[in-house]
Amino acid sequence: MLWIILIIALFASSLFAGSETGYYGVNALRLKHEARGSRNSALLEKIIRQPSAFLATLLIGNNIATDVAVHAAVMLFAASGFSNTELLAILALAPLDFLIGEMWPKQYMLANPNRLLWFSVPLALCRVLLWPITQPIALLVSKLDSGAGDLIMRRNQFVSLLHDSQKQAAGEAEVMSAAIRAIESKGQGLRQYLRYDVPSLEQDISVAEARKKMSSCIDAKGLMFGKHGPPSILFASRLVDTQPDSPVLPSAVPLISLSPSIDLVDAVRHLQIYGISHAWVEEKEQRAGLLDLEYALASLLSSRPQ
């Protein structure tokens, strides 16, 4: 019986460790689309919808599985008449836990993150069983980061989705069309998609000061205003190799100006023409803001009805 408990605990630890790696490789936006025709996809999409709670389930479950494995090994050594059973259990389990509970499952999921779909049922069961512990942790995390972490992840997932759709065969057209349908909302204008959290930068600002100000923005960017016309946008990544005494303005990208009354679809077409993903949106007697395409699409997708 103890051997069975030990084996189950080791494989449970393997499941939790591999699922964590698989979770970071699965594209949640693609999964949401596939959930329409697959029960496994629908179940997995539901249990990872709250990332902090799902990750807490994996970490707590892995700790419980490891603890059960150690206690089972201790009892097995004790039943065999050994002394120093705790030390022997640790020495015996350390290589097993590393190979079976860490390295192998992580490499297995890393090779194909979609394998996570095969384990959606046991993961859902663990999510339910550990809900009283993980839910308070998830609520605390959401209060601390105000959802910024999830937003960045959604933005990265959308970019990945677009790149994948360009590289795959014609069958991927369904995934691409699902993303396009999400932004086909006529008559709403651009106001609800604008950002007001990007810091303003003076044109004569130093490299160090620009980096400091942009660090307050979740995706490290800033706006540089001139005397006339729309501002330019500066990305912190463009300052990586810039000398401390070099001017910052040449590294900024000029923005086009759009009317807030046009639809998001029309705005995307304008941005596509200019080959950029940001625009300045302003109108007389109204607050101006930045249209960040990735930010707008991620916000729209996250607010879609389930």
Describe the structure.
The chain is of the alpha/beta class and 306 residues long. The protein has 3 domains: 2-145, no CATH class; 149-180; 191-302, Roll (CBS-domain), CATH 3.10.580.10. The chain contains 12 helices and 8 strands. It has helices spanning 2-25, 28-34, 39-47, 51-79, 85-111, 120-129, 131-145, 148-167, 173-181, 207-214, 264-274, 293-302; strands spanning 194-195, 200-201, 221-224, 232-235, 253-254, 256-258, 278-281, 289-292. Strands 1-8-7-6 form a 4-stranded mixed beta sheet. A 4-stranded mixed beta sheet has the order 2-3-4-5. Helix 1 runs antiparallel to helix 4. It is elongated and about 85 Å long.
Tell me about the largest β-sheet. Answer: 4 strands, mixed
Which class best fits the helix and strand makeup? alpha/beta
Report mean pLDDT, rounded to a whole number.
78
Strand order, largest beta sheet: 1-8-7-6
Count of folded domains = 3
Rounded to an integer in angstroms, the radius of gyration calculated over CA atoms is: 25 Å
- The percentage helix is 55-70%
Please provide the count of β strands.
Answer: 8
The coarse overall form would be: elongated
Give unreliable regions as ranges.
165-179
Distance between the termini: 44 Å
What is the H/E order? HHHHHHHHHEEHEEEEHEEH
What is the helix tally? 12
Briefly summarize what is shown.
By secondary structure, the protein is α/β, with parallel strands linked by helices. The protein is 58% helix and 8% strand.
